[in-house]
Amino acid sequence: MNDTDARAAVLAALREVAPDVEIEDLDTASRLRQDLELDSLDFLRLLELLADSTGVSTPEEDYAGLTTVQALIDYVAARG
Prior knowledge:
With 80 residues, this protein is an all-alpha fold.
């Protein structure tokens, strides 16, 4: 999957999980938990939506590296 498709998938998933976040103005350096205020259930739902839309499953041992929107985009792009 290329970066553009991965970015679109991540932003679409974020729209569902965090409807209050202004996606159009989102800085991809934003931290998922601290800046976007995703709790652990939101984070898991985000990963579930991404798995459904891209086929990219995320093993638990990779969770710690997925701290920002850009890290998630890069992760999906590399594995999609």
